[in-house]
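quick one if you have a minute, typing this from the bus. theres a chain ive been looking at and ive put its sequence and its fold in C-alpha cell form underneath. please have a look and point out which stretches look like helix strand or loop to you. anything you notice is useful, everything is just below.

***
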Amino acid sequence: MVQTIARIKKNGKNFEILVDLEEALNVKKDNPGADLSSAVLTEDIFYNLKSGEHASNQDLEEIFGTIDIMEVAEKIIREGEVVRTTESIKKEHETKYKQVVDFLSKNAVSPEGHPYTSDRIMKSLSEANVSVKNKSIESQINEIIDQLSKILPVKIEKKRVKLTIPSLHIGKSYGVIKEFLIEENWLSNGDLQAVVEMPTALIFDFYDKINSATHGAVLSEELKT
C-alpha cells in the first residue's frame, strides 16, 4: 500500500485527507471495482494533514454541502488532486510504454511485410525520442507511428470510416473521434459528417465507443484507403 494525500482548494481554503494511492486513483477514474472505503485512510477532513489541523463542520457544510466524511472525501478525490509519488509515475509510464511496444510488435511490419521484434521496436522508440504520454494508446498511436517512422520504416494496416453523427450527440462524440479525424463537414441540419482513419486493430474498440457516445445513432461507412 502506498499512502498519499488527496487535496482540494475551495473558497480559498485547503482540504486534505490521507488515501491509498491506487484505490484513490481507481475512484477518481471510476475504474470497475473502485472502493471508496478502501481508498480513504482517515476518519476526518483536515485543512493541513501534516499538522493535524482539522476542518470545521461549518466549513464542510458550507463548502461541500455535507459533514459526512465519506461524502466529502469522495468529492476531494474526484474533484481535487491525488498526489502522485515519483515511483507510481515511473511505474505507470513503464506500463504505458510496454503497451505501445506490444501494440506495435503485433501490428507493425516493415514495408516488405516482415514483423519487427519487441526489442527492435523498443530500441527504435528510444532512438526516435518518442514520448509516450499518460493517456490511452489509441489516442496517441498515430503520433507515435509518425515519430517512429523517422527511425524505423513501419507499415500498419489502417481503416478509414465515414461517420454521420446527429447534432444531439456531437458533444460526447467529438472526444472519441478527434484523435483520428482527417476530415469534417458540418451539415445544414447541424449533424457532423466526419472521416476518421486508424489502425485496423483499434476499429472494433472505436465502434464500441462511438456507438456508446451516440446511443447507436451514428451512421458509419468504411471507405477504401
